[in-house]
């Protein structure tokens, strides 16, 4: 396929430029490593375009401060100081539901997850960010804490040119339906398989 060419020519009455600037929903899923890594890479690309970036982590422990968070928050500070790139917000929606459920009841975690989604809904309605990273958001949907059909309907009806990236395993069918880009990460080999634990710079 020639560089920059698509395999089909849509008959939608739009110009090439109009089609090029359509907002997308990106879904990174599957059993393999790299779902969140790819999402944060996209956030870096959006930052360089001057976009407002909103990251919402729905599962990883609130005690963790992963490398991508440090890097993106530093870029947000750079924007505030110099105007380069775009603003960055990073929110952790709970205390690490998939890693440790020792603090609070499941009802507490479910309520926190739902309120996290409600905050994303409010921001989508207000067009607060140009790019949203909903990291590991498939899990509270799978656990029944957030309604997948509602999420898909909200994303399909979002105003403006807001891009949304969702990561996690086993996405709800409605998310697969609404996604414009769906990439399944397939594990072929991983050090975990031979008993090697995660290491700095690779897993966090």
TrEMBL record:
InterPro entries, per database record: CblAdoTrfase_CobA (IPR003724), P-loop_NTPase (IPR027417)
Entry's Gene Ontology molecular function annotations: ATP binding; corrinoid adenosyltransferase activity
Composition bias, Polar residues: 1-16
Keyword Transferase: yes
Keyword Transferase in annotation: yes
Keyword terms: Transferase
Region (Disordered) location: 1-22
GO BP annotations, alphabetical order: cobalamin biosynthetic process
Protein name: Cob(I)yrinic acid a,c-diamide adenosyltransferase
Native organism: Kytococcus schroeteri
